[in-house]
Every structure is written in structure tokens, then in C-alpha cells.
Amino acid sequence: MSMEEGWTKDKLVDRIRKKYEGEGLNPDTFMTGLLWSKPISYWDYINLDALLNLQVPRTIFPDENVFIMYHQINELIFKMILQEIEQIGEHGGMDAEFFKSRIMRIARYFDMLYSSFSIMQQGMDVEQYMRFRNTLAPASGFQSGQYRIIELCSTDIENLIDNRFRKDFSEEWTWEECFNKIYWQAAMVDHKTGQKSYTLEDFESKYMDRFVETAERYQDKNLYAVYHSMTDEAKEDKELIEVMRHLDYTVNIKWVMAHYHAAHHYLNSGKKKAEATGGSEWEKYMLPKYQKRIFFPSLWTEEEITNWGEGLV
User: SS3 for 157-172, per residue?
Assistant: First the structure.
């Protein structure tokens, strides 16, 4: 039917009037405005012209546009993931079916991110990449604030602490102490001197207040905390456990390794091994076997955790 639930025209107009009156607005103003409004088009609805003009390459190499657009697509997918996480965090009286459906959505987004990495690994000319990448320094994909927020909203802060310091973690740690020992610092801090790289300092200057606010707000409603808040029956749902394990493995092993292999393909392709544009120790930072970063550790056996990411190079 073309009208909601087969409403008559009078019924539909009455509902519209009540909607605006309920918001303290004059319905006649809005209905009169419909006389002059233009129909929406696909390109206007998604702001297509603006979207297609968001690429601003810094060099003459065409493959730089591939690099830019791929990262922009990633950030849009991250935004979609964060929307699902927010729905979970703000959903009162959590039930297993709602939680499961949103976890499945997030898992599908990360499946897409993982499967798309061949665009990065095989979709750019090595010679072009090795030239245009020099104009990117000191920027780095490390600086994706949205991805860090996804992590903070997915698990307890303890599970994001650098593996070298995790055994010493205390709930008495301040947020500053937690973030000074969070795993991504491994990529950008000289742990002998404690000196942070410019890339990390710039990143923290932009996002740290938001990171702390997010960690505080989600400490009792991150994905792992919400799972633990549900009934024993819900927590034992085999399908839910399977999709949570799938998400954990996809994010923290498969997608990370796809990123690692893409970086390795380009940075080790020349006669001389190249450094990451942000100057990171990207291999130790990325490889799962070093960090053993796991969102939902209670859903894995001790053996699985011990062997997390082993043999994947």
C-alpha cells in the first residue's frame, strides 16, 4: 500500500497535524511549505558532489587518489560501526536478540573492511606509492581517532593496555596512567627514554580529551561490559558467542594481519626497507602475537589466548 497501514488521506493529514502540534509547532506552516519544496534527488540526498570532491592529493600520482579514497571509505565504515555501538550502549533493558543483531552488524562491517584490504595491497603501483607516501609524513593511519574510539567502546581498558604492562594493571590507575600504557603507545614511544614521537603528540593533542571522555562513559557499557550484564542464559547463547568470537578474531587478527601484509608489501618492496610515515615500529605494534589484544577474553580458552596470532607472518 502507498499509505501507512492503509490510512485514508484525512487520517494521514490528521496524523501530520498532531505530530507538529505535539512539538508545539504550527502544522499549517509546514504543509504550506510542501507546496514550494523540490523533490529530493539521489545525488542531493547523499551529497554526492561534495563527497566526490573530498579528495585532495598532494602529488601528481593517480594512485594517491586510491590511497585517499580507501581511507575515507574506512572512516565512513568506522562511523557506521560507532552508530551500532552507541545503540547498544544507550539501549535500556538490554535483551539478547537486540545485542546479537547489533554485534552481527558490527561483525559484517569488519568483514567488509578485512576483505577490502586487497585494494590496498594490490591496487596501487609500488613505485607511485613509494613516491607519494613521502609527502604524507608525519601523518599516519595510526592517527584514526574513530578506530581508537571503537576499541575503547568494545572492551575494558585493561584489555587495551600494552601486553608488557598488562600484568601490572590496577583499577586504581588514573586514566592518564592507562593511556600512557595503552597498546598503541608501543608504536610511537621510545620506551627507553619515554620520548613520544611528533605523530603521537599531535594525535593526542587532537583526541585525548575525547578518548578519556569515551573511556569514562563506556567503562560500564562497552560491548564486553554489556555482554557480562546480561542473564546467564543470554551469555550462554551459542550463536551470540560465535559471532562475538568472530568479531574479536576478525578485528584483532584477520584485519590487523591484512593491514600488516599490505604495509609489508610496500615498505619492504624496495632495495632498502622503508619506515612508516609516522616513524612507528609498525611490525611490533601491529602483529597480534606481541600485543595479544583481545576484546572478549573470557570467550577464549587459555590455550587460544596463549597462541593468539602465533605463526601469522
Answer: HHHHECCCCHHHCCCC
Q: What is the mean pLDDT of residues 54-81?
A: 96
97 plus 233 within the same structural domain: yes
At 248-257, the pLDDT tens digits run 999 999 999 9
Same domain, 250 and 129: yes
Residue 155 is assigned to a structural domain of this protein: yes
Domain count of the fold of the chain? 2
Q: At residue 143, what is the residue type?
A: Q
Buried b / exposed e along 269-308 (16+ C-beta atoms within 10 A): eeeeeeebbbbbbbbebbbbebbbbbbbbebbeeeeeeeb
Q: In terms of residue numbers, what domain contains 100? A: 64-306
Mean pLDDT of 258-282: 64
Phi first, then psi: what are they for 189, rounded to 5°? -130, 135
Q: Is residue 312 part of a domain?
A: no
Mean pLDDT (whole number) for 50-75: 96
Residue type, 190: D
Indicate the pTM of the whole model.
0.89
**Phi/psi of residue 237, nearest 5 degrees:** -60, 115
Percent of residues in the chain assigned helix, strand, coil, to nearest 5? 65, 0, 30
